[in-house]
Amino acid sequence: MKHQPRALWRDKLYEVIFEADTRAGQWFDIGLLIAILISVSVVCLETVEDLDRVYGRWFYHAEWTLTVLFTIEYVLRVVCVRRPLGYALSFYGIVDLLSFLPTYISGFGFGRVGSFAVIRSFRLLRVFRVLKLIHLTSESEDLASAVWRARGKIVVFLAVVFITVTIAGTSMYEVERLHNPNDTQFTSIPQSIYWAIVTMTTVGYGDIVPQTTLGKMLSALLILVGYSLIIVPTGFVSAEAVNIRRKQDTLTQTCPYCLVEGHQTDAVFCRVCGRPL
Fold first, then answer.
1. Does 218 lie in the same domain as 273?
2. What's the CA gap between 51 and 31, in Å, rounded?
3. Number of helices (H), then strands (E), in the chain
4. Is the pLDDT of residue 35 over 60?
5. DSSP state of 269
6. Both 208 and 263 in a single domain?
7. What is the full DSSP assignment across 209-258?
8. In terms of DSSP H, where are the helices of 99-150?
9. Are residue 34 and residue 69 in the same domain, yes or no?
10. pTM of the predicted protein model
11. Among 40, 166, 172, 223, which has the highest number of CB atoms less than 10 A from its own CB?
12. Residues 96-100: contacts with CB under 8 Å, at least 24 apart
């Protein structure tokens, strides 16, 4: 069955909204990012009681104005995309929906859920496309790939850490109880394991500290072990990152069918669905 050709205005609208190859597309994304920043700032500032008491009405009107704008933008995205359902169920489609839906839920009397509107800050990830920071996008993909490749070693590392803090926490529990069983902060093995984790990661909250000399020696040893283990996962990921072959991609090119971003600069077809770009 022969498909009817798309209206020209839908293609033009798609190019402006989903891509940043044109001046209009760049200005659209820049304006959208500014609106997102303003909206996230409003949602955050209205939680400050002193500011909300003075500027509460301004915050209210600003939030609803931006919500209407985001609603219109979402509708335009659904209208111009080739696969509306695919966009609606995609990561950015869900984020775009959640960027204005909580305000409507709150406005119709289903409770105050306006703070969830800060989820629209995820949409700021589009700044990579607007500013054409292709090398940063490539770096992030390489890092994610390196972490995934090193997942087996990282799991083994975490298992070793878990065993270490369990042994250290149990040892500290026994050491402190032998000294003064009635006046010790190490009241249980889980509590002691919590102390071991805080100590080994060199966070050191100070809410639980050993009182005995042997306990302090064990604490110092655990801190040194923690320092020596910090670099281990970094080495795993770095080794895998060296082996990753780099690719020259462009983030501004979006497949109009599956909405996948990031294609070879000279690509004619989508690298995922194979349809023409």
1. no
2. 26
3. 11, 2
4. yes
5. B
6. no
7. ---SHHHHHHHHHHHHHHHHHHHHHHHHHHHHHHTSPP--EEEEEE-TTT
8. 101-107, 127-130, 134-149
9. yes
10. 0.53
11. 172
12. 96/70, 96/123, 99/36, 99/39, 99/70, 99/74, 99/123, 100/67, 100/70, 100/71, 100/74
Residue 163 · residue 196 · CB < 8 Å: no
Give the Cβ contact number of residue 62 at 10 Å.
18
CATH number of the domain residue 97 falls in: 1.20.120.350
The confidence score (pLDDT) of residue 116 equals: 60
Q: Which of 49-58, 130-139, 147-156, 229-238 has the lowest mean pLDDT?
A: 130-139
Helical packing angle, 49-80 and 91-98, nearest 10°: 140
264 assigned to some structural domain: yes
User: Rounded to an integer, what is the distance from CA 63 to the centroid of its chain?
Assistant: 23
Higher pLDDT, 98 or 4: 98
| Residue located via tokens 């990282």 | 154
What are the beta bridge partners of residue 249?
A: 264
> Mean pLDDT lowest for which of 55-59, 196-200, 224-228, 229-233?
229-233
Residues in the chain: 277
